[in-house]
Design a protein that fits this description.
With 315 residues, this protein is an all-alpha fold. The protein has one domain. Helices cover 70% and strands 2% of the residues. The chain is built from twelve helices and two strands, in the order H-H-H-H-H-H-H-H-H-H-E-E-H-H. A hairpin with a 2-residue loop joins strand 1 and strand 2. Helix 2 packs parallel to helix 11, helix 4 runs antiparallel to helix 5 and helix 6 runs antiparallel to helix 8. It is globular and about 55 Å long. The N and C termini lie far apart (50 Å).
């Protein structure tokens, strides 16, 4: 019974759904507020994401007549389950995650692709041209940034010699952050840019492109299903940036200051917030790329950066 209770607590509360939803919504609210300031606007309050989420839950849920109902309805639920599971598989408060798996980095990479696949399926299943075009763009973009993302992680694996996130964090506790290893600087730059594309943030918000295809795969979503998609985006932001924190910034570390012990989750959230600020600035100083230019960028400069790191680490 104790094991079942611990599993339910980890899955539903910390570091699972409740924690991920609260922090993800708050961080995206802060992102929107900072964006407003950078654009010389007041911007919404930082709790606006909570209000929007609650409002969407109360709105009418409409499914297009031409939609493939089952796929259209369940795509956001599957995506949410995948990103919440990611948070269970890497350290959030201590070196040990809530769930442990052999070669968990492979599992995490797989799970982080499920939201993209779900959105593509949801877009195609919506039965509308905007959804189909957005899904097609997502497929094309996925095959460009994902290789860079995976190879950057492979550089870390080659440096540490472990496919376990806990192993990578433990290595950094003994030897210092991998961000301070010059051989991994190109990989870090590449993975941050690839993360921007994975999260569909400017300049890689091409599959959604509000001014071109309305909202792409999400155009026909409304009410509670759109609320779940919004929650998926917020939690995925926390999951992707949290993975980078574990791989390059030492993961969660507890500190004792003036006799007061600060838990590792605080350290983890501060580091995630620092990366969020970097991505926020990036999306406010750049314009959306055309799909062909985004592909060219990842297949040339992105691959070049991770190739340099791989060669330096291996040699």
């Amino acid at each position: 019974m104790v094991g079942v209770a611990e599993f339910l607590f980890s899955t539903l509360i910390f570091p699972g759904l409740l924690f991920a939803a609260a922090v993800g919504l708050l961080y995206i609210g802060i992102d929107r507020k900072i964006t407003g300031r950078l654009q010389h606007r007041v911007g919404p309050p930082i709790w606006q994401e909570f209000l929007d989420f609650g409002k969407l839950l109360t709105k009418e849920d409409i499914t297009p007549a031409a939609a493939q109902g089952a796929i259209f309805d369940f795509a956001p639920v599957v995506a949410l389950g995948a990103v919440v599971t990611v948070l269970l598989l890497f350290p959030v408060n201590s070196v040990q995650p809530a769930l442990q798996s052999v070669a968990d980095l492979i599992v995490i990479i797989y799970l982080l692709n499920i939201p993209a696949i779900s959105m593509m399926l949801g877009g195609y299943a919506s039965g509308t041209p905007f959804g189909a075009v957005g899904a097609w763009r997502y497929v094309v973009q996925l095959f460009s940034y994902e290789l860079v993302f995976v190879l950057a992680i492979l550089s870390v694996v080659a440096r540490v010699g472990s496919l376990s996130v806990s192993g990578v964090v433990g290595y950094q506790l003994a030897n210092g952050w991998l961000l301070f290893d010059p051989r991994l600087w190109p990989a870090f730059i590449a993975v941050v840019i690839a993360a921007q594309a994975k999260l569909l943030r400017v300049p890689f918000d091409i599959p959604e492109a509000h001014t071109e295809i309305v909202h792409g795969p999400l155009t026909e979503y409304s009410g509670p299903k759109l609320a779940v998609w919004r929650l998926v985006y917020c939690v995925e932001t926390l999951a992707v940036l949290g993975l980078l924190v574990n791989l390059f910034l030492g993961g969660p570390v507890s500190h004792t200051i003036a006799g007061v012990t600060i838990p590792g989750v605080v350290d983890f959230l501060v580091k995630v917030f620092a990366l969020l600020l970097v991505t926020t600035v990036m999306r406010n100083v750049m314009a959306r790329l055309r799909i062909d230019r985004a592909l060219r960028f990842f297949w040339t400069y992105g691959l070049l950066l991770v190739a340099v790191s791989l060669v330096l680490v291996v040699v």
